[in-house]
Amino acid sequence: MSKIECSHCHLDFDEEVMIKEEERYFSEESSAPQTAVRYFCCKGCQGVFHLLRDSGLESFYDKLGDKKLSAPTHTLDESAAFDSETFYGQFVTKNSEGFYEVSLIIEGLHCAACVWLNEKALHRLEGVIEAHINFTNNKAKIIWADHIVKLSSIIDMIRAIGYNAYPYDPSAQEAKANSQRKAYYLRIVVALFAAMNIMWIAIAQYAGYFSGMTQEMKTILNVAEWILATPVLFYSGWGFFKGAYFGLKNKIVSMDMLVATGALLTYLYSIYITLMQEGEAYFDSVAMIITFVLLGKFLEVLSKKSVADTMDAIAKHVPNEVTLMHEGESERRSVYEVKVGDIIEIKPGEKAAIDGEVMQGEGFFDESSLSGESHPIYKKEGEKIISGTICIDALFHYRATKDFSHSTLSKLVSMLESAMRKKPRIEMAANQISQYFSTVILLVALATFFVWWLWPHSFDRAFMVGISVIVIACPCALALATPVATLIGLNLGGKRGILFKEAAQLETMAKTQMLILDKTGTITQGRPEVVNSTLFKELDKALLLALCSSSLHPIAQAVVAHLKHEEPSLRPLALHTSKQLPSRGIAAVHEGRKILGGNAEFMKENGITVEVKTHLSLFFFAIDEELVGYFELKDRPKEGIKELLSFCEESGIEVLMLTGDHQESARFIAEEVGIKNYRAELSPQQKADIVASHGEKVRVMVGDGVNDILALASANIGIAMGSGSDIAIEVSDVVLLNDSLKSLKEAFVISRRTYRLVKQNLAISLLYNALTIPLAMAGYVIPLIAAVSMSFSSLLVVGNSIRIKWKWNR
C-alpha cells in the first residue's frame, strides 16, 4: 500500500485512509484547465488548510517547506480521547434530528473578536451544524454530524487557531476556575511588586527632574526600571501577547493587540532612550499599563463568574444517583439508568432527580428552588413530584413518569445553557462594531502620532500621545455591554421560576405592545369545580368517567373529580377509541356507540341542539347524537391578575383575552377581572389567526394547553404555564414554572430592566470612547491614566449590570 503525504501536516499515511480533494483552476502557462489534487489525513487538516488559504495565509506552507508538522504532543488531553465511548456517554447527547451536541469550555477567550474567530473557524468545518459561544462564561455549544466530522477534529481546529477546549463539567468547573485564579494571582503579584518598586524609582527621577540629576544617575535608575519592567511585560502580560499573536495570525485586531502594542512600543522606546542616554524613559508606564489592565481583567473575570454561578449551582447540585425499588429491595443506580415506570424511593432531606407520581407516602416537599413558593407543598398518593424539589419529612415511593433527560430539573439546566448561548440582536450589532473597533483605533493612533510629530516636531511627545490613544480605547466594554446584563437577567428569572429559552427573548419581550391571554388555566386557576348538573335521561357514570379520563383538559378533569367524589369506588369502562378535539371536546366509541363530551359549539357541529343561558362553563354529554345532560362549572380568577393588568395599562400594553368557551362565560370572566377586549368560542386555528392578524405589533401570547400551541407559535413570544401540556411547553419561548401571574408580571419587569441596562451599558461604552479618545489625541492623557481608564470602563459596565440584582432585592 503506497504512502501519501498530507497536504497540510506533510505526514505520510496509507492512501486508502486519506481524504482526496480535487480542484480545477487556470494557470498563466496554459489556457487549458488544470486539476490540483490534494490529500488530507483528517478533517482537521483539511479545515485548517482552507482556513489558512481563505484568510490569505497560504504563505505558511512556503515557510514550512519540506518540514513536517509533528503529531500533537499536548500536555493537553489527546484529541482522540474526545471520540471515545466513555466521553460520548458522559458529555455528548444526540438530539431528535440525529445530530450530536456537546458543551465545551473554550480557554483563552479575551474579547468578542476571539468569540467571532472561534465561531467562524468551527462553522467552516464541514459537518458542523451549529457553534455558539457565550463570552460571559466561555461556554460553547457545538452541534455536528458525527458521520461527517469527528469531535476530535473539532477540538483540533480550536487548538489550531490558538485556543483550547475541554468538556463542561459543573463538578470539575470550580477546581479548574481555582487553578486559573491562582495563575492570575501570581501574575498580578509579580506585576504589583515590580510596579510599586518602579514607582519609588520614578519618584526619585521626578524629584531629580526639578532639583537636578546627572545623566549618569538617570541612566542607572532607567536600567533599574528596565530590569523591573521586563518580567511585568513578558510574564504578567504574556496573555496579551499570546492573544495578539493569534489575532494577527487569523487577521483579527483585538483588545490584546492594543494593550500589547502600546506596552511593547513604550518598552522598546524606553530601551532606546536608556541606551542613547538622552530624553525620558517610560518604563513606569509600561508596568502600569500591564498592571492596571491585568487587574481590570481579573476583576472582570470575577464579576462574570459571580453572575454565571446561578446556573452552575443548579447544574452542580443535580443528583447523580437515585434509589430504585425492585421486588422490595432497594438499589442505588445512576439517574441515566432510570426508565419511565421505575419505582423510586426518596427519603427526607433528599432532592428528587426524576419527575414522577406518588405511589406511597404523604408529606411535604420544598419547591422554592424551582417555583419560588416559600411554603412547603403537601403531597399524597397520585400527586406529581417535580425533579429539583426536596422531600422534607416523609419517606416516599413514586413512579417515574419521565426519564432524567426529560425531567424538569434537567430541562431547566439545558434551557438556561441554551438561552445564554443565543445572542440578542443588540449584542450581535455590538459585536460587529467591536470587530472593527481595534483596527480603527490603531489607524487613529498612527495618524495622531504623525500629526503631533509634524507639528510640534517632538518625537517623544508624539510617541506618548499615540500610545495613550492605543491604551485608552476599550472594545471590551462594548463587548461586555450586552452579555453580562443578559446573563444576570436570565439568572434572575431562573431563580423565580421564569425560564427564557433564548437570551434574545429578553429583548423582544421588553418591546411588547400586546399581551394575549388564554382564559382557562391562564387567567383562571384552571381548576374548575362542578356546581350543578342537569340530566335528561339516565346517566352511565362509568362511561362518562372513561370519556373524561381520556382528556387532560381542566374541565374534563373537574368532571372526573366530581364523579369520583360522588362515588369513590367508580371505575371507568374501556373505550374502543378516543380522540380529543382542542377547544371543542372529546369523541369516543364504546361497544359501537358514539360518545361525545364537550362545549356547546362541539355539540352543534355534531347536529345536537343546545341552549346556553348561564355565564358558567358548560360540559355537555351525548350518546349517539342524543343529549344526555350537562354540567355547570365555575372557575376562579388567579391571584395577581389585577396587578398584571394594572402594570400593562401603565406600560401601554394592550390586553386581549381569547377562549374556546361560550360568549357568556367569557364576558363574565372579562368583566370580573377588568379586561375590555375578548373573543370567545374560538377554535385553535382561529386563535392563531387572531394572534397573526396583529402582526404589526410585538405580541406575547400566554397559554397552557394543546389548544394554545398554534397561537403560541404565531406570537413573537409564546409563554407557557409550567402546569400546561408538554407540547405547549415545548413550542413556547418562555416557561413559568409556578403558574403564577405574578411571575408573568416579573418576566416583563426583568426583560424591561435588562434591556434598559443593555442600552445604558452601550451608551456608557460609546460615551467613554467618544470622550476619552479625543482627549488622548489632544495630548491631555498620559499612558498611566489611559490604562486606569480602560480598566475602569469595563468594570463600570459590569457594575452597572449587577445593579438589577440590587434593585430587585430591595
Question: What would you say this structure looks like, in words?
Answer:
The chain contains 28 helices and 31 strands. The protein has 810 residues and is of the alpha+beta class. The strands form seven sheets. Strands 19-31-30-29-20-27-28 form a seven-stranded mixed beta sheet. It has a six-stranded antiparallel beta sheet with strand order 11-10-12-18-13-16, with no helix packed on it. A hairpin with a 2-residue loop joins strand 25 and strand 26. The N and C termini lie far apart (75 Å). About 1% of the residues have low confidence.
Give the uncertain stretches in residue-range form: 70-76
Distance between the termini: 75 Å
Helix content: 40-55%
Strand content: 15-25%
Strand order of the largest sheet: 19-31-30-29-20-27-28
SS class: alpha+beta
Total number of β-strand segments?
31
> How confident is the prediction overall: mean pLDDT?
79
Q: Indicate the radius of gyration in whole angstroms.
A: 33 Å
Shape: elongated
The major sheet is characterized as: 7 strands, mixed
Q: Helical stretch count?
A: 28
